[in-house]
Amino acid sequence: MERLAGGIMLLSGWRRALVAFLAGTFAVLALPPLGIFAAPFLSFTLLVWLLDGASGNPDAGIVRRSFPAFAIGWWFGFGYFLGGLWWLGNALLVEADEFAWALPLAVVGLPAVLAIYYGLAAAVARSIWSDGMGRIAALAVAFGLAEWLRGFLLTGFPWNAIGYAAMPVPLMMQSAGIVGMSTMNLLSVFVFAAPALVATRKGRFPGIALAVLLVCAHLGYGAWTMQQPGPQPSDPQTVVRLVQPVIDQAKKLDDTERTTIFEAHLALTAAAPETAGKRPDIVVWPETSVPFILTENPDALLRISDILQDGQILIAGAVRAEDAGAGLPPRYYNSIYAIDDRGQIVGAADKVHLVPFGEYLPFEDALSSFGLNAIAAAMPGGFSAAVTRSLLTLPGGRTLYPLICYEAIFPDEIGDGALSTEALLNITNDAWFGNTPGPYQHFHQAQVRAVENGMPLIRAANSGISAVVDARGTVVSGLSYNGKGFVDTILPGKTAVMVPPAERSRIFWFLVFMSLSVALFSRSGFVFRDN
Questions:
Q1: Annotated catalytic residue, options 147, 252, 359, 405
Q2: Which pLDDT tens digit goes with each residue over 246-277?
Q3: 430-434 contacts at long range (C-beta below 8 A, 24 or more positions apart)
């Protein structure tokens, strides 16, 4: 093993870059739809050995001295993000005549930019590198901070954070309910990189022992939690129907298809329960499922009232228009409506966290002069973002915490206010991306949100994956990708969270401090090194 580590460490030039790139790409196997938990152990082990050989000229300035490590981290990140996000290009092919030119920017450009986070993480880690367990701690704290920054810098894009690789199934998601996503990122890197210590003569035992202990605690706590009695539904029980119409995205953009699309949703809403069970109390349609401005189409509200039975509520994704006043064009919002059996809009919530270049155009005044538009915006100028998040309050006092589309990938989007609601509500339209890893990755991240908050998740997607997920991340009932139809299920109850979401940041920063201390002490030769 030492010979192999030495060979990797001594690689140079394009061979070093290629191994880093392939290592990052291989780590993607741990993500949905494959979920191969073992993959990152090899990837991060190779990354450690590559960084062992990435010492820059000690007489050079800090930038030049850090560049070899930055380059390794960047190539690793480029492989990881390219392999994990290539499917984003599918969205540009829906209207290929207008957006196909941007395909290289989405498929290659975005991974290249995101890889900078990992490049900086590798450079920071290498600056406090040592020859024992300390370098594993250095890598963990650097990647933990990089993922933390990726969650909010430049509006944030924490898709496929490293911690998700350690949570492929519900049993392995339970730890997130205690420590949160940021800490899972840090600890996951430590565990994944620990096998590199096998080829280390000094200080191998403490690091490997700690990694084994973390894995045992992770699996043990998950197994214990999954064996506890499940969360009980509220009394009276709430039956939810998820409607998954599987409307081709090209048709959704065709004005002549609007009536057909609307009637397809209504038909699935009106269908009798398959098992002659209780009719649904709440029917949920996906994101932007209403193909017109609902408030400007009273006939559509009448059709909804004709379909809904007494006491039923329809929750539907729709575009909401708002008068901007003073002769200005209206503002448009990506919204959720709650509509009662009389066709009245009784609740609404607007999307807060919009997708850059998808739902709005950053630096619009400058970029629009070049003829650029937001990809998924249904109108010139794109969508406007809500200033604050509103809970969706239904008749009878029930409340849901709305997350529209990719808002579900942001752990910090869900505050402690969510704990007072009945469930998380995530509506989305992943048809933009086709049957690629994208919809599976999106669903997986939404599952983890349910576990983090001890709350059931109601998720309706145009083409899938739609599901009701309980507070432990287990799918109670759902529809697979491209499975047209509906599913009725009883909404599960909530579970008590051991550590409130707002308190988990303290755990993260404590572990950042501890990991940094281990790295610095190890570098100084005080601890964690054998004589």
A1: 405
A2: 999 888 888 889 999 999 999 999 999 977 67
A3: 430/461, 430/462, 430/463, 430/464, 430/465, 431/246, 431/247, 431/248, 431/249, 431/252, 431/462, 431/463, 432/90, 432/91, 432/94, 432/249, 432/376, 433/87, 433/88, 433/90, 433/91, 434/87, 434/90
